[in-house]
Specification:
The structure holds 2 protein chains of 2 kinds. Chain A is mainly beta. Chain A is built from no helices and 11 strands. In chain A, strand 9 (83-93) and strand 10 (96-101) form a beta hairpin. The chains are: A mainly beta, B mainly beta. Chain A binds chain B through residues 6, 32, 34, 36, 43-46, 49, 86, 90, 92, 95-104, and chain B through 3-4, 31, 33, 35, 41-45, 48, 50, 55-56, 90, 92, 94, 96-104.
C-alpha cells in the first residue's frame, strides 16, 4: 500500500537559514508527488508538484526515486514561510483518483 | 471561478448525534474527496466520489458515509458521533491530479 512519511512534526528555523522539510514515500509504481501548504487561517493549497519541476515562493523539491524521497527545500527562510506543510502522493488507477497525505510538518520561522 | 465551498463552517454536536456536512465543488470538477484533519493524525482520506459513485474509501468506520449528487455537490454524514470525531473536515474537488480544498467544517463533539 502507498504511504507518505513526514518524520518531523515540528521544525523551527531562523530567518535567512536554509529549510528542508523531509518527505519519504512508499509506492511500487511511478509516483506523482506534491507539496501542499496551509497558512494560518487559510485553506490548504497546492505549493508545487514534482512533474513541473518549478520553484514556487523560493521552494523546490526533487524527486529521488532511489531514496524514495521528495524533500522540500528553500535556501533562505522567510517569516511568511511559517505554515503547515503536507507532502502528498497522487495515485490514478483506472480512473480512481486518490491523494495520500503525510501527517504534515509545522514550520516555524524564527525572526 | 468560485472556489470549493463547505457548509457549515462550524458545528457543535453532542455524542450520539448525527451530522451532515456539505461541499460544493468548483464548477466543472466531477471528483470530490473528503478528508479528516486532526493535530495528531494529520490529513486522513475518508472517501472520493466521481459522478455520484464512490470510487475510493479510506479506513474509517461505517458511521462515516457520503454521497454525491448529479450536480457534483457532495454531502458527508457521520452517525452516532464520538468525541474522537472532533476534527476539521476538508473537502477537495479535483480536475485530474490537482486538488482544490475548501476551508473546511470544524466539528466539535461534546
Amino acid at each position: 500500500a502507498q504511504r507518505v512519511t513526514q518524520p518531523e512534526k515540528l521544525l523551527s528555523v531562523f530567518k535567512g537559514a536554509p529549510v528542508e522539510l523531509k518527505c519519504n514515500y512508499s509506492y511500487s509504481g511511478s509516483p506523482e508527488l506534491f507539496w501542499y501548504v496551509q497558512y494560518s487561517r487559510q485553506r490548504l493549497q497546492l505549493l508545487l508538484r514534482h512533474i513541473s519541476r518549478e520553484s514556487i515562493k523560493g521552494f523546490t523539491a526533487d524527486l529521488n526515486k532511489g531514496e524514495t524521497s521528495f524533500h522540500l527545500k528553500k535556501p533562505f527562510a522567510q517569516e511568511e514561510d511559517s505554515a503547515m506543510y503536507y507532502c502528498a502522493l497522487h495515485l490514478s488507477n483506472f480512473g480512481n483518483e486518490k491523494l495520500t497525505f503525510g501527517t504534515g510538518t509545522r514550520l516555524t520561522i524564527i525572526p | 471561478k468560485a472556489g470549493v465551498t463547505q457548509t457549515p463552517r462550524y458545528l457543535i454536536k453532542t455524542r450520539g448525534q448525527q451530522v451532515t456536512l456539505s461541499c460544493s465543488p468548483i464548477s466543472g470538477h466531477r471528483s470530490v474527496s473528503w478528508y479528516q484533519q486532526t493535530p495528531g493524525q494529520g490529513l486522513q482520506f475518508l472517501f472520493e466520489y466521481f459522478s455520484e459513485t464512490q470510487r475510493n474509501k479510506g479506513n474509517f468506520p461505517g458511521r462515516f458515509s457520503g454521497r454525491q449528487f448529479s450536480n457534483s455537490r457532495s454531502e458527508m454524514n457521520v452517525s452516532t458521533l464520538e468525541l474522537g470525531d472532533s476534527a476539521l473536515y476538508l473537502c477537495a474537488s479535483s480536475l485530474r491530479e490537482k486538488a482544490f480544498f475548501g476551508q473546511g467544517t470544524r466539528l466539535t463533539v461534546v
